[in-house]
Amino acid sequence: MDARDARERQEECCDELRCELEVMKTAMDEMRRHMNEMQLQIRIGYHSNDINVNFDHNREKSASDFGEWIGGLEVTRQDLEAMFESSDVVDWATKFIVADLKQRSGHPYPLCAIKGSRNEMLMYDKGAWKKMADQEFVSTLVNKVFKKLLAVFTAWKNENYNKILTSEHFSTLYHSNYARILSFNENASKLKMKLFHVL
User: Fold this and answer.
1) DSSP state of 126
2) What is the mean pLDDT of residues 26-38?
3) What residues contact residue 71 under an 8 Å CB cut-off, 6+ apart?
């Protein structure tokens, strides 16, 4: 009788485990469905691309405005010299943008990455979080940095015009960096990917 009771007890335990497993499977399926719906909402821009983001659960402190931040973005002579010394203009631009965000805007920054997405970014503009399309990323951020960088580079070139003509070092510095700056816009997707991983 003891072996029979033990076997019945085992069968009861197995039945209970099967029931618990079925409940867990149902819960997992529901969670997957809910996550897929959320990802779809993010991809299509839920509520006309407005996405409510609450960083650190702190409603008292909102992000700086993207338009104000980008309007105040400045490339200095020191930034240009750092670009000269960098091996990759995209690495330089990533460090420059992140440093400027840290220096001039409070956290949360007006630009952030949507974690779990491929490389989607959000910007806080006019009081709401909005998904930043690739074209918008290029037309606002990339073009702004490019124009500022080119202006500082042109001023440097004008100040060092005679040295560029007479010094091999300055000539090489000018021509190699001029080519890097002109190719800056072509690296927009690479810059977006690097920023996505840093922010």
Assistant:
1) T
2) 65
3) none
- For the stretch 178-185, contacts whose Cβ atoms lie closer than 8 Å and that sit 24 or more positions apart, written own/partner, are 178/153, 180/83, 180/89, 181/89, 181/146, 181/149, 181/150, 181/153, 183/89, 184/89, 184/93, 184/142, 184/145, 184/146, 184/149, 185/138, 185/142, 185/143, 185/146
CA distance 62 to 107: 8
What is the pLDDT at residue 45? Answer: 47
How many CA atoms within 13 Å lie on the side-chain side of 54? 4
pTM over 0.85: no
Instruction: Please calculate the CA angle 123-126-130 and round it to the nearest 5 degrees.
Output: 35
What three-state secondary structure class fits 128? strand
Q: How far apart are CA 128 and CA 148, in angstroms?
A: 27
DSSP state of 56: G
Cα–Cα dist 131/119, whole Å: 11
Q: Tell me how crowded residue 53 is: count the other CB atoms within 10 A of its CB.
A: 13
What CA–CA distance (Å, rounded) separates 180 from 90? 10
Arithmetic mean of pLDDT over the chain = 81
Amino acid at 78: Q
Question: What are the tokens at 175?
Answer: 């021509």
pLDDT digit string (tens) for 86-123?
999 999 999 999 999 988 877 778 998 888 888 889 89
